[in-house]
Amino acid sequence: MRRTSVLLLALAAVAAVAAAAPGSIWAGVYTTAQAARGQKAYLADCAECHGEALRGIDDALPLVDQVFLKKWTGKSVGHLVDVTRRTMPTDSPGTISRQVCTDIVAYVLSVNGFPAGQRELAPATVLLKQILIEPKK
């Protein structure tokens, strides 16, 4: 009896993680409201170096189009959030919260044409690492 209960709890936990897993980046992994929050944060914290249109300024790389895809294809959204959190802004890295970094990444994804969906991009690393950045097939 106890063994069955433990097994049922384990299966329920696996099902909960699977249900929360965002799936394909093309299935809509952020919401438009989250991207709007991310745009405000981007303009406040990132645009000075990356430009308002995300095209890059001086040494700061563009965050759009082929340059973005070439750098990030095959890497996870979690890796993008982690790198952003650890290294940006360059004059005070690590000062932007994980939630705000996740919102900024949602905005960057929206500008790159990845579609919005019904659920926000969660800042949980385990979920973000399941979402690979891939060009449309």
Topology record:
Layout: H1 2-20, H2 32-45, H3 47-50, H4 65-72, H5 77-87, H6 98-111, H7 125-128
Helix pairs in contact: 2-6, 5-6
In helices, the fraction of residues equals 40-55%
What's the architecture in CATH terms? Answer: Orthogonal Bundle
Mean residue pLDDT: 88
What is the CATH topology assignment?
Cytochrome Bc1 Complex, Chain D, domain 2
Distance between the termini: 49 Å
* Sheet with the most strands, sense and barrel status: none
How many helices? The count is 7
Q: Structural class of the secondary structure composition?
A: mainly alpha
What is the CATH class name? Mainly Alpha
CATH homologous superfamily assignment? Cytochrome c-like domain
| Number of separate domains | 1
The topology string of helices and strands comes to HHHHHHH
